[in-house]
């Protein structure tokens, strides 16, 4: 009697095939989002620093080679940068770094002052002792960091601490959307400020301005803090206008 046994693996049914297809599709979307985030962060940093100057064309094919990826995550990153106003999407002509001019800068300045007025007032209203201590610490670190390096360029460490100081002032504002909006406006402003980085302020003591703002915040004097912050921004703007084409 032949007792050989044959064991047959069950064929993959339609449910299993659908499950594998869904998992593969989910993994592909996750990889694409990771790639687009990496590309977004890299291009945004280059735009803010001026490595990619205003008006620079951003060709999808070239960026695909640079980042070693397909066109989908590149276009997704560029579209997100366009929504943040750092990139312009021109119909049938592709993408380019957003231009800078006096009209755009004036709109940016006014919007920033309006937004940070509300954000700072809310931050003062909701912030506690730990928040004010953090402001003091960041300001101290900023005061101990040289503004420029030996080449004469703005010190990246100072630039990072400078943003940290200004964003710390607003971080207790309970609206995440308003905080994110202010953060994006700050990045927009850096482009203009770095365009004039070779110049020098005359008779201006920026640290003292920061100190006065911090003192008003710690004293919970919202009106004075907003007035000093707005004056700080407009003083910088009046200096920058000479370096910005009309």
Describe this structure in words.
The chain has 246 residues and is mostly helical. The protein contains nine helices and three strands. It has a three-stranded antiparallel beta sheet with strand order 1-3-2. The protein is globular.
State the gist of this model:
The protein has helices at 14-49, 60-67, 71-83, 102-126, 129-143, 156-170, 176-195, 206-218, 222-240, and strands at 57-58, 87-90, 94-97. With 246 residues, it is mainly alpha-helical.
Distance between the termini: 99 Å
Fraction in helix: 55-70%
CATH superfamily of the largest domain: GntR ligand-binding domain-like
- What is the overall shape? globular
Overall average pLDDT: 86
**Could you say how many structural domains there are in total?**
2
Which strand order does the major sheet show?
Answer: 1-3-2
Taking Cα atoms only, what radius of gyration do you get, to the nearest Å? Answer: 25 Å
Fold-level CATH name of the largest domain: Four Helix Bundle (Hemerythrin (Met), subunit A)
List the total number of helices.
9
CATH C-level class of the largest domain: Mainly Alpha
List the helices and strands and how they pair.
Blueprint: H1 14-49, E1 57-58, H2 60-67, H3 71-83, E2 87-90, E3 94-97, H4 102-126, H5 129-143, H6 156-170, H7 176-195, H8 206-218, H9 222-240
Antiparallel strand pairs: 1-3, 2-3
Helix pairs in contact: 1-3, 4-7, 4-9, 5-6, 5-8, 8-9
Key structural traits:
about 250 residues; mainly alpha; Arc Repressor Mutant, subunit A; Four Helix Bundle (Hemerythrin (Met), subunit A); 2 domains
């Amino acid at each position: 009697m032949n007792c050989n046994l044959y064991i047959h693996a069950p064929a993959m049914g339609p449910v299993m095939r659908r499950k594998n297809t869904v998992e593969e599709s989910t993994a592909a979307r996750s990889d694409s989002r990771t790639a687009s985030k990496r590309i977004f962060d890299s291009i945004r940093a280059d735009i803010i620093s001026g490595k990619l100057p205003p008006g620079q064309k951003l060709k999808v094919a070239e960026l695909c080679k640079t980042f070693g990826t397909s066109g989908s995550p590149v276009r997704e990153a560029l579209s997100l940068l366009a929504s943040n106003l750092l990139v312009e999407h021109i119909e049938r002509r592709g993408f380019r770094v957003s231009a800078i001019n006096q009209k755009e800068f004036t709109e940016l300045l006014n919007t920033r002052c309006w937004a940070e007025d509300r954000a700072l007032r809310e931050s003062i209203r909701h912030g506690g002792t730990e928040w004010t201590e953090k402001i003091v610490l960041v300001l101290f670190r900023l005061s101990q960091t040289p503004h420029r390096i030996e080449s004469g360029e703005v010190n990246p460490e100072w630039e990072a601490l400078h943003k940290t100081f200004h964003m710390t002032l607003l971080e207790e504002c309970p609206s995440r959307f308003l905080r994110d909006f202010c953060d994006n406006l700050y990045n927009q402003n850096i482009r203009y400020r770095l365009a004039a980085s070779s110049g020098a302020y005359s008779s201006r003591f920026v640290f003292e301005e920061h100190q006065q703002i911090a003192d008003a915040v710690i004293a919970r004097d919202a009106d004075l803090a907003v007035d000093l912050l707005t004056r700080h921004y407009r003083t910088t703007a009046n200096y920058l206008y000479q370096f910005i084409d009309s």
